[in-house]
User: Fold this.
Amino acid sequence: MTNYLSLFSPPVFVQALRLCSVILVIIIVPLNAHAESILITNTTVHSQSKAGVMRDVNLLVEDGRIARISRDTIDNPPKDVRIVDGAGKVLTPSLIGAYSQLGLDEIDLEATTVDSILNPLIPAVSFAFDVQYAFNAKSVVVDVNLVEGVTHTIIAPRPGSDIMAGLGAFANLAKGQIDTPNIAMFGDVSANAAKKIGGSRAAAIGKLRFALESLESFSARRHHPGTGEYSKRDLIALQTHVDNDLPLVITAHRAVEISQLIMLAKDFDLNLVIRGATEAWQVSEALAAADIPVIIDPLSNIPISFEHLGARLDNAALLERSGVRFAIEVADTHNMRLMRQHAGNAVANGLSWSTGLHAITRAAVELFALDDSLGRVVVGEPANFVLWTGDPLEVTTWAHLVVVAGNVVDPNTRQTQLYNRYKRLDRAPFQYGYER
Assistant:
């Protein structure tokens, strides 16, 4: 009878491991060796790096990375290289969203497709609510935004029964995965959130301050929360987040709440990011002095409520003038792809073009301390970029080529499949699938 245990004796086991290593090399190397090579000719590159803007250059992608950027002809490119004429086109880093619910919410009015928020009528976790587990890369809105240049995004929870919403994550839309969980913690002290705990913004800011103060004497073993107090699980999540100096993203619109948050950040040495910030221009010097960045929607220019009375189209331009760092978001998460048009509107109202591009590419990398290779086009680093048909901040421009980690994104989505299915009205639509 064969002694199966003898197979795992040291000499045989080591040989088996070596054999496995050889097999893995045989499997892995061809995959890397056959990664698509791309040569883009005669294009303009906005690198978002020290190299700045490079005009009439050729860019070569090999093995998933940017191999060369040169004004000279690139000799001896790989035989199977895909050559793309970049004349008249503009190449930029791919778009990175600083705030969204992509992959979390499908249809706002259908509760079973909304995973970014807890039922406000049911007391539940707040600081510890973690949306990474609900990310759905198969959501149809993911591909719609991906093919238009949005390759990565921060996905965030929204407040349910409390002012604090929970933990967000950093999602790679092209790979359909969470690259970094617990990237930031989200909350809200605006009127919308304050009504969840009595209606006063004083209570909202006071509750957040009290939670931070309680960390000084917090002991998980001895903590027994009373009515309305945060649970052990929530305070552990908050303590871990603050101790690791991770971003705390708080929504506020009025200048008075923004000022209160600036003081809160100073008192507790917080890594604070303010989202919304409709009236940020009124306290821009204080924000700049405290080096507190904001996430804004530049098209928020109508006083839709009493906390938006100071809304104006040149909010971004005024923040830039004061030296405030900021990223641009889109209120409608399903249409994050429009962030470049929002940046274009900000440019039309006084923002510099380069800062407008920075606010939708590199800004999120800096605000959330993401992988430093993202949001820029640099030789030797992963190829994550978009080749646009023209100025990416213009509404008439579209994405000609989207590349993530050196791989060209398939431009087909459910919408294009539906279009192909029904574009011919002289014949019955296909009954099964959209492949024909």
About this structure: DSSP finds twelve helices and 16 strands in the chain. Residues 10-33 form the longest helix (24 residues).
